[in-house]
Amino acid sequence: MAYSPLKFLLRFGCLLSGCATLAFHPQSSEALVVFGSNDQLAPSNPDYNDTYTLPPNDGAPWAYAARVSPDSPSAVYLGHGFILTANHVATRNTGILIDGQVYDRDQTFERIRITTGSDNVDLSLWKILGDPGLPELPIAIPTVDYDLGTATTLIGWGAGKGQYLSSGYGPNKIEGWEWDQSIQIKRWGTNMSDGEASSLVPGVDYEVLRFFQNRNAGPGEAAPAQDDSGAGAFQLLGGIWKLSGIATLSQSPSLFVNSDTYYSEGVRLGTYSHLLRFENWKVAVGGNSALEDLSDGDNDGIPLLAEYAMGMAPGANSMDQLPSPAIDGDYLTITYRRLMSATDVEFVIEESDTVGGWVPATVAVRETIATDHTIHMLRDKVPIAGATRKFLRVRVTRL
Ligand SMILES: [Ca+2]
Ligand SMILES: [Ca+2]
Fold first, then answer.
1. How far apart are CA 88 and CA 250, in angstroms?
2. CA–CA distance, 313 with 50 (Å, rounded to integer)
3. Ligand 2 geometric centre to CA of 206 (Å)
4. What is the CA(242)–ligand 1 centre distance, in A?
5. CA distance 234 to 131
6. Longest C-alpha distance within the chain, in Å?
7. Ligand 2 centre and the CA of 291: distance in Å?
8. Can you give the residue ranges of every domain in the chain?
9. What are 73-97's pLDDT values in tens digits?
10. CA 243 to CA 131: how far, in whole Å?
11. CA of 25: how far to CAs of 89, 163, 249, in Å?
12. Which of 54, 74, 142, 350 has the least CB density, counted as fewest CB within 10 Å?
């Protein structure tokens, strides 16, 4: 059975009371529903308290928390024009609201779903046109950053807190809040992260961060609600704010209970960050972020940056994966590998008639001839245009 979180969201909005599964879109709790005691004493109050709708005063990356405009789920801006959000919302082609301005989606960049090994992650990468002027947002690094059991700031654009729900008695009685999309604005809240090897959602398989709704994270404790899919989970790690998770699932409103049983989910980004960032890749494959960008530890003549950008193994000879040329009628072609999910490198195909004076090549056609997860094999066709000789090369630059 094909599983479609987005369809689920559109049809039902949320799950019925008593259902033990999670809603497939993170309908975050109020854009984080806040679980403080005052909320219980005055349960009908909507949560548009300024405390949680203005930037947090601890420097959490508020500006990077984006929205799939105009009235859709959440996303996070990574820098260099890249947007990360839940895959189940990533089919939309609308603009992205970042720090008060809407940016058009770059239709020339086909969205990349993050996959690796057997993991089919509820995570997609898009690009925008234009420059929000925000520097690269750091991403949690596995084995270096402790992203579990860590104070987390969630920022999203999901629904607000609606009608209070209550039944039964006692500390774990069923209680919660309906989601109110009329007060769907950007909010933040806190929680403590926990981990799990696999998502609760059937049909997908990826490592998650979990956020229990057990009021262990102070009066601002929050969880994702409707349209918080794609919301960012940020952590202060080693003195640097980093993106540690992307919200993918929330509990239904009636399961926003004080409980160590129910939790919301997000993608644990550290597990997949080597596909997105060179610094993270260095740690994942070499155990050391201090490796020189142009070092060549495996002595295959290919510098580390190029091994990353082309999806090669930095500990094995990769000569057979270097770009290769061919003549195809009136074209000179170059076939090369590219890690499509890399957000911090630029690829330029260059041409020359003299092995000097390299200029960007006139690429008439670009074909994707094979894919292996997020690594694509591309073939660019450059017109020979009467030249008696022509040279092509791939230039990779770290942004
Ligand atoms: Ca090498
Ligand atoms: Ca190699």
1. 13
2. 49
3. 27
4. 29
5. 22
6. 86
7. 14
8. 9-26+293-398, 33-275
9. 899 999 999 999 999 886 666 789 9
10. 20
11. 8, 20, 5
12. 54
Say how far apart CA 143 and CA 161 lie, in whole Å: 37
Burial (Cβ within 10 Å: 0-12, 13-18, ≥19) of residue 51:
middle
Read off the DSSP letter of residue 23. B
CA of 294 to the centre of ligand 1 (A): 9
CATH class, range 9-26+293-398 = mainly beta
**Per-residue pLDDT at 177:** 67
pLDDT digits (tens, 9 = 90+) for 239-277: 999 999 999 988 777 666 667 778 889 999 999 999 999
Distance from Cα 379 to the centre of ligand 2, integer Å: 21
- pLDDT given at position 176: 65
The pair phi, psi for residue 39, each rounded to 5°, is -70, -30
Q: pLDDT tens digits, residue range 351-391?
A: 999 888 999 999 999 999 999 999 999 999 999 988 899 99
Structural contact between residues 257 and 173, judged by C-beta atoms closer than 8 angstroms: yes
Tens-place pLDDT, residues 104-147: 999 999 999 999 988 889 999 999 999 999 999 999 998 899 99
Ligand 2 centre distance from Cα of residue 361 (Å): 26
Q: Given the structure tokens 């789920």, which residue do they identify?
A: 73
Asked if the 33-275 domain carries CATH number 2.40.10.120, the reply is yes
Stated pTM of the model:
0.87
Using alpha carbons, select from 268, 162, 152, 272 the residue that is nearest to residue 212. Answer: 152
Where residue 203 falls (left for φ over 0; alpha for ψ -120 to 50; beta otherwise) is: left
245 versus 15: which is more confidently predicted?
Answer: 245
DSSP 357-399: S-EE----EEEEEEEETTEEEEEEEEE-TT-S--EEEEEEEE-
Q: What is the 8-class DSSP label of residue 264?
A: E
Task: Give the ligand at the shortest distance from the Cα of 317.
Answer: 2
Distance (Å, rounded) from C-alpha 14 to C-alpha 396?
Answer: 45
